[in-house]
Each structure stands twice: as structure tokens, then as C-alpha cells.
Amino acid sequence: MMYTNKMKSEIEKIINQINSSLDLLKKSIDWDKANNKLKELEAISLQKDFWDNPEKAQKIMQEKSIIERKINSYNNLKDSLDDNLEILSMAEQENDKGLINDAEKSIISLQEKSRIVQLEALLCGEVDGNNCFLEINAGAGGTESCDWANMVLRMYSRWANSRGFKTEVIEQSNGEEAGIKSTTIHIKGENAYGWAKTEQGVHRLVRISPFDSSARRHTSFCSVAVYPEIDNDINIEIKEKDLKIDTYRASGAGGQHVNTTDSAVRIHHIPSKVVVQCQNQRSQHKNRDEAMKMLKAKLYEIELQKKEQQANKEHEQKTDIGWGHQIRSYVLHPYQMIKDLRTNIETSNTTGVLDGELDSFMEAVLALKSKGIKS
């Protein structure tokens, strides 16, 4: 295929898109601040006693790596674009059609890199890079919704696995006949919260019920809430007098050994009415530590929502899990279609989505925020 001057307007459009992505990334990482921070971290990493505290050193090296990667992403894309624009300009002056063709091909190939750079720019929130907790609750629909909640758990577990994230079930309450009433999973990986936060809301399923002997169509709901894991250097004040801590015998995930003692922990934060629980560890002390992490995460998420002036209020003030609150609709009968109601992104590949292919939905939601970054 030959790329000639008739492609000039299309090439100019691609160049503008790439420059827009570069501007977005540069603004999102605060270019001067990021470069100064990188120099500071490099200086710290060269100190003789740097590795005396391995945990602190690893955290610094991780921060350094993330900043370095973002700066390199910008520089590599910009250098590639500048080099090809220079070649294209020279080729046009010399009317070298072969060289024009090669330069235009190279610029077109930069589109995908530009898209990735733009997505990186959108993951620029204060805690977007952190691990997260993802909570699923079955809604209206009884056994049907419990089964749907279990399908959603499988969907997010597969999505996390496809990205190389690690997942761990923190607590789980099984349905009476099938599925789960609720569960909380810990997702660990770079930008886990930044990606998963786009999934908060109510998910609606329409299908022929496998639990209905008359094979009627049923509508089921479950809610998804996502909270960022909070680093120790972010101060969330929690007073002991504001806590009500209960212990109980664990059930569900964790294996039969977990049921032998009252090791599970439930914490009520009285002022906010937030409740968290953990049952995946044998030790009551470890479950308490994990539950406190979750509590800090939820309280911090509430503060994030206040700052961003989001329409939804605190996570503990649950909306009805039913009609009118859904963010995505999964229709398996009478036709196959999954549609995100916020972005209008839809697909008939229902099997792929339920197997964890969620990136297109997540990317579209992140893209909605790009206007705010550009402005």
C-alpha cells in the first residue's frame, strides 16, 4: 500500500492526535516536578545506607521506576515523532516518494503507542497506582443475584490475572443455594486502583435462569465498590473509641482450617457507619490488621469522592441495588449484548467480557476524564 500526498490530511490528523497525547501525559505527570522528583530519588538511592531499610528502599525504587517509565514513555514517543517529521519534511523537499511513504508509515505506526501513552496519562490520580480492594454485593433477585455476584467475581479475577495482578479473597459470604452474597478481594499490582475504580456501580444481568424450572427470563443485580489500599505515609486518623470490633468464626473462602477458631474480625467505624471484615487468615491479629487496611481504604475513598464532588455519596450509604442505578447491562437473552450505560460502549462478545475482557470499557470511562485534564 502506497501512502502518497492524498494521505496528507489523514497524516496531519494523526500527528495532531499524537501531540495531544503527549501534551496530556506531560500535564498529568507535572513535567518539571516529576523530573525534579526523579533526581531526588536517584540521589537517595545512591546513599550508602540506602538498603539498610529494605522495605523503605523497595518503596523508593518502585516510585522511581514508575516516574522513570512515564518520563521515558513521553521522551520515546516525542523523539520518534520528531525524527519522522524531520524525515518527512526532508523527503517532501526532495520529492522522494519512497521516503515519504516510509515516514508516513512510521507516523501511522505511532498511533497505538500514542493511545497507550494517553491511557497512562489518565491514570494520574493521587492513588491510581495503588493496590485496591474490590467489593461485590448481590442485590435484588435472591439466588439468581447470588449466582450473578459469583460470575462477576470470576470476571474480575480473570481480568486481574490477564494484567498480571495478584488477587486474594479477604472475606466471603456464600449464598444459601448457590453463588455468593458478598465478597471482598484484594487486587495487587501497579495501577490496580486506577483501572478498577472505573467499575464502581451496579451491574445488571438479563438471562434465562438456570434455577427456574420453567426456563423464564430473570433480571439480576449486583453492586461493585472499589477502594484504594492506603500507604503508611497517607495519614488517616482513626480513633480507637470510634471502633466496635467483633470476632466470629469464619466461613467460606480460606479452607476448613479457618473455621476452627473465632479468628475472623469485623470492624464497625461508628462515625461513618462503615463496616469491614476479614476472615482469610488463621490469625485473629492478621485479620484485624487486614480489616484496618480496608477501613482506611474506605475512609480515604470517601474523602476522594468529596474532593472530586462526585454525585454518589459515601460508600457506606448504599443505594438500592436494582433498577435505575446500573452502570452496565449484560443481556444474554433474547440476544447477546453488553452495554456500558455511561459511555455507550457495547459488544456482542459476552463470553469474552465475562472471561475478563474489560479493558475497552475501562479505557472508555477513563477517557471521559481526559477533558478535565486537558482543560
Summarize, please.
This protein has ten helices and eleven strands. It is of the alpha+beta class.
Description:
The protein is α+β, with helices and mostly antiparallel strands and 375 residues long. The longest helix has 40 residues. About 4% of the residues have low confidence. The strands form two sheets. It has an eight-stranded mixed sheet with strand order 2-3-1-5-4-9-10-11. The chain contains ten helices and eleven strands. The chain folds into two domains: 118 residues, Methane Monooxygenase Hydroxylase, Chain G, domain 1 (Up-down Bundle); 249 residues, 2-Layer Sandwich (Alpha-Beta Plaits). The protein is flat.
Unreliable runs: 253-258, 310-318
What's the CATH first level of the largest domain? Alpha Beta
Tally of domains = 2
Strand content: 15-25%
Q: What's the rounded overall pLDDT mean? A: 85
| Biggest sheet architecture | 8 strands, mixed
Using the 3D structure, state the CATH architecture of the largest domain.
2-Layer Sandwich
